[in-house]
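Hi all, long-time lurker, first post. I run a small reading group and we've been trying to get comfortable going from sequence to structure in the token notation. Rather than ask abstract questions, I figured I'd post a concrete chain and ask someone more experienced to write out its structure so we can walk through it together at our next meeting. Sequence below, copied exactly:
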Amino acid sequence: MENGSSRNVLKPMDSEQLREYGHRMVDFIADYYKTIENFPVLSQVQPGYLHNLLPDSAPDHPETLEQVLDDVKAKILPGVTHWQSPSFFAYYPSNSSVAGFLGEMLSAGLGIVGFSWITSPAATELEMIVLDWLAKLLNLPEQFLSKGNGGGVIQGSASEALLVVLIAARDKFLRRFGKNSVEKLVVYSSDQTHSSLQKACQISGIHPENCRVLKTFSSTNYALPPELLQETISRDLEAGLIPFFLCANVGTTSSTAVDPLAALGKIAKRNEMWFHIDAAYAGSACICPEYRQYIDGVESADSFNMNAHKWFLTNFDCSLLWVKDKYALTEALSTNPEYLKNKASQANLVVDYKDWQIPLGRRFRSLKLWMVLRLYGSETLKSYIRNHIKLAKDFERLVSQDPNFEIVTPRIFSLVCFRIVPSKNDEKKCNNQNRNLLDAVNSSGKLFITHTALSGKIVLRCAIGAPLTEEKHVKEAWKVIQEEASYLLRKEKT
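-- Answer (accepted) --
Happy to help. Here is the structure in token form:
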């Protein structure tokens, strides 16, 4: 028995096996990118497909890497929606890149869990440095830099970032008004704000009836009207409630609406509220001087968030959050059990990022962002973003030239919102036509787009931002959309 068990001892970090398998895996992934255009962009499998292809239990004995990769090709890839395809125009992009991939590989290889400074000093300090680098590229106020009371931190998602600052704001106000005043705390946002705010309110104990979702209108391109915000706050104050948190948007999910930050910031300051800016998608574009205007007013914010994993060539997950008052975070989120105590932390000489986030554990994510910034450089990254915006302008022009279609909201960044025009002002029929067109286009496998609803209208979204997308892919996408639309409209007439 002893001899048998010793033969089965596993050496999971065998460096020579890693070298061999690693080369094969890199080749596999490189081949995937080389042939990615051959796959249907949107997976066409049916629910439960994989249960019919894989065994009911794990293997008792080792299998070869070849067997596993063969199954990836035959069974996994058919069920993959190819986010990195040049014909992926859905949701918002989730960028991958060679630099991001290499950073992810290095992070995985080092295998550190950097929750406090002592667990890997480089992980903490590099994160502080690269967040300062990017804050300077965005021309954020100095209060967001790590040299003062503020600083940046990498979260897993914009949803996590929002939850963290909402909890920090909540606790700040509860310390001021008393812990029993939570039922009076009121949150404000537009009806275009991401659903993660609703979830954050649910998690943090904000009463649902105290979440003010303010209506936006096509006349202001779905931006939050400051006068409506002020009216609502005034009513809440008269009712004895406590306005405490305002979330503004730079690039909403539905249509890339940009809220008037300066005006909203004045209202937040006047009412001593926490002001958070969600620029998850569009924040990346603001490293370009010509787009920096869209975050004018950020100087009045308490926190600012953008996702480097959306449009900044940094593999998921890498959501960047800056705060002016790091102590608001640490007071709300710190824990100090005996088993985590150390001299550096106890002496307040270091940052422990465990106290800036929900979980304890955290990966060395700053390596990805550091490698992206170094291997590409800021000027290349600006050109990358500008190219996608140019392609979006091209697509917008193609849509505008077709009498069967209309642009629904003005394009700001690289999202185009459009639809088949209604016939005889029949909006219900028009909505069904656009739903049918969406299904037809996505069922083709040639591209993937998504939809939204604006003022009751079903609107198609073409979000250009995949790393491999070129002009030819945009033209081909429009050709498919036109062909499917023509077929549907002819079919309805017969």
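A couple of things your group might point at:
The first helix runs from residue 2 to 7.
Residues 391 and 471 are 6 Å apart (CA to CA).
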